Amino acid sequence: MTKTYPFFINFILLLLLTTSHLKSTVQKSDQCKTLVPPELANLDTISNKLHNDPKTIKIASNDYGNIIQEFPIAVFHPSSIQDIITLIKISNNSSVPFTIAARGQGHSTNGQSMARDGVVVDMASFRKQRKGIAISVSEDPLIGYYVDVGGEQLWIDVLYETLEYGVAPVSWTDYLYLTVGGTLSNAGISGQTFRYGPQITNVLELDVITGKGDYVKCSHEKNSELFNAVLGGLGQFGVITRARISLQPAPTMVKWIRLLYSDFSAFTKDQERLISMKGSKQNSELDFLEGMLLMQQGSINNWRSSNFFPLSDHSRIASLINKHSISTVLNWLNITMINLRKWSTRKFKLCFKD
């Protein structure tokens, strides 16, 4: 009688695939050592900041989208803006120019932060070199408060710094552990966009390193073509090294409401109605509105929920998820009304629309 060993066979196949992948990665990394352009390898101020060990190359060859994989020949850890300028000028003046891509937190979705057979500029390492000195809040009698921020800085750090002055940017992304240069290269959209516009509409000025290695200051009035191209340009028109962003007084009190729906039509109808609301005597205009899904997987309190749901409601929410488990399970609306300063900062009881 013939015996089968499915577990053993599957284990061997998995081992072979893993070994093959590791071998391919190591071989590619070894090739990187010999592919670094001589202009880089022979320049002391640059060569010692190029890294091509297997771990570094592997990290730089993927992004958050996990769709594309492109291997660079090296990853560059700059310690100054001049380092980035020098790198770009070397490529631009080379007989065979190489691709350069700036990488912040790697949250691009289609390979924008990768450089096939080129050099990835690690802006995270640059941030560590600057140690938070690239966030500066100022006040101008004409335009009010603004903040000058290095493109490599994280939005969460911008928030903490500006709140020290009682002000903050008016438009954010939902996730704040992203770089300023990264989100401005992708517009910067969140639940505030319907009212305040994306983040790029609140930018007053930029410092940009162009593809020729020129260091250019631009705004709506000065070098406006470059300014408009870089904002939302997916990193294809230059590297953002500084952004001047307008600020407004930060709210001291917030009213936060969350509604749960099992009817998608009712969900979208209410969402459109809330977006179209204008200010009134009751000052009911919204500052933030967001909708999302609850599925039959993962935690009810995930990073987007911020532990909004009390434990006493978990069983009720879980039963609704099981009840509507075919496709779209539950939808919720986040509603934030920061103009209602008579309200104390607290979470309101859930309203179920089943």
Q: Which labels suit this protein?
A:
12 helices; 3 domains; Uridine Diphospho-n-acetylenolpyruvylglucosamine Reductase, domain 3; 22% strand; alpha/beta; 354 residues; 5-stranded mixed β-sheet; 5-stranded antiparallel β-sheet; Vanillyl-alcohol Oxidase, Chain A, domain 3; disordered C terminus; Uridine Diphospho-n-acetylenolpyruvylglucosamine Reductase, domain 2; 33% helix
What would you say this structure looks like, in words?
The protein is of the alpha/beta class and 354 residues long. The chain folds into three domains: 113 residues, Uridine Diphospho-n-acetylenolpyruvylglucosamine Reductase, domain 2; 118 residues, Uridine Diphospho-n-acetylenolpyruvylglucosamine Reductase, domain 3; 99 residues, 3-Layer(aba) Sandwich (Vanillyl-alcohol Oxidase, Chain A, domain 3). 33% of the residues lie in helices and 22% in strands. β5 and β6 form a beta hairpin. The chain is globular, with a radius of gyration of 25 Å.
List the helices and strands and how they pair.
Blueprint: H1 6-35, H2 38-41, H3 44-47, E1 50-51, H4 54-60, E2 74-76, H5 81-93, E3 100-103, E4 119-122, H6 123-130, E5 135-140, E6 144-150, H7 155-163, E7 167-168, H8 180-184, H9 193-196, E8 203-209, E9 215-219, H10 224-230, E10 239-246, E11 248-249, E12 255-261, H11 264-275, E13 288-294, H12 311-323, E14 330-337, E15 346-347, E16 351-353
Parallel strand pairs: 2-4, 3-4, 12-15, 12-16
Antiparallel strand pairs: 1-2, 5-6, 6-10, 7-11, 8-9, 8-10, 12-14, 13-14
